[in-house]
Amino acid sequence: MKNVTIDTITQAFVDYCSDDTDPRTMFLLTKLVEHLHAFAIETQLTHAEWSRALKFATDAGKITDNERNEFVLISDVTGLSSLVDMIGSQHEGTSSSVLGPFHSVGAPLLPVGGDLKKDNEGATVVVEGYVRDLDGNPVEGALIELWQTAENGLYYAQDNTQDDFNLCCSMKTGADGRYALTTVKPAPYKVPDDGPVGELFRATGRTPWRPSHLHFIVQADGLKPLVTEVFANGDPYLDSDAVFGVRSDLIMDYVECSDLDALPDDLEIGRNATVPYFKVDFDFVLVPENS
Ligand code: BEZ
Ligand code: FE
After folding, report:
1. Burial of 172 (0-12, 13-18, 19+ CB in 10 A)
2. What is the DSSP letter of 140?
3. What atom of ligand 1 comes closest to residue 72's alpha carbon?
4. In what order do the strands lie in the sheet with 109-110?
5. pTM for this one?
6. b/e map 45-75, b = 16+ CB within 10 Å
7. Which ligand is nearest to the CA of 101?
8. Which domains does the chain have, with CATH numbers?
9. Which of 9, 36, 80, 234 is 20 to 30 Å from the Cα of 273, by its Cα?
10. Centroid of chain to Cα 285
């Protein structure tokens, strides 16, 4: 088409595409281009502004490698990752939350009651709960994966002073659907802010901090896998999470306890907890696979 105008360029894009294009691909691309064109018209975008945006994208490409993906981070800090997550999980079970970049496949399998803390610095935290279905039935053999930062706010993959898979494990629930383990309290941390995403934070006066959290993936036969996080009540960043992951049902108290006899009986550490220690109770409710 010659002589496209502000009013015809969006339809021209659609007309250029082959009728054989996969329908969902065509739908998504058409909507994307419609919204991009509408954005440019509504904001009366200038060459200088668009060049700045393209430099931002180019810089994101330059800093991206096998270890770090700035495009995923842009999706996270603009709320797009959380939005896609919420669209795909509008159900009655435990809320889902962002996966983040620090999930490692192959973490060691601990028995129920196992110790993840080992010689990590910090107070002992006992995390315990049940996996249930929507009817409240316990889910036996659910596979739980957990990963978290050490007290210094770093995941093992970011910190060469930590062993591989430090503070990462998997665990299978028992017949009663229960899991339990000992660990340390994770710390709040900043998402990487030394690249384009950092510029975005500084330009908008936003904080790059995330509230402290435990990451979980819970999977069981016939139920929808759940990717979520559990946050600490009272954390200063609960209302400003850089990646929009906090949901009310995911905020838990770290209850301070001093009675060693109140520890669950099946802990690998027996009664050898720091005093005071902290107790976090968190149950997961999984929905049927196709909901
Ligand atoms: C995280 O929770 O590990 C995370 C999530 C999004 C971006 C960066 C880190
Ligand atoms: Fe995290």
Report:
1. middle
2. T
3. 7
4. 109-110, 168-172, 143-147, 213-219, 226-232, 251-252
5. 0.91
6. eeeeeeeeeeebeeebeebbeeeeebebbbb
7. 1
8. 9-77 (no CATH), 92-286 (2.60.130.10)
9. 234
10. 18
Could you give the CA distance from residue 264 to residue 283 in angstroms, rounded to a whole number? Answer: 16
Residue of minimum CA distance from atom 6 in ligand 1: 100
H or E segment and range at residue 257: strand 255-257
Tell me the residue type at 165: F
3-class secondary-structure state, position 192: coil
pLDDT average per 10 residues of sequence, the chain (291 residues): 94 95 97 98 98 98 91 96 87 91 93 97 96 97 97 92 96 97 94 96 96 97 96 97 96 97 96 95 95 78
Residue in this structure with the two tokens 């209302």, named with its chain if needed: 239
Which residues on adjacent β-strands are paired with residue 115?
Answer: 182
Pocket test for ligand 1, best of 64, 76, 145 (most atoms within 8 A of CB): 76
Query: How far is the C-alpha of 5 from the C-alpha of 3, rounded, in Å?
Result: 6
Rounded-to-integer distance, Cα 16 and Cα 26, Å: 11
Rounded to 5 degrees, φ, ψ at 284 are: -110, 135
Peptide bond into 276 cis (omega under 30): yes
Q: Which atom of ligand 1 is nearest to the CA of 243?
A: 6
Q: Which of 179, 210, 180 is nearest to 192 (CA)?
A: 210
Of 173, 188, 187, 179, nearest in space to 126 by CA: 179
CA distance 71 to 252: 31
Ligand 1 atom at minimal distance to the Cα of residue 229: 2
What b-and-e string marks burial along 258-267, b requiring 16 or more CB atoms within 10 Å of the CB?
Answer: eeeeebeeeb
C-alpha 133 to ligand 2 mean position (Å): 26
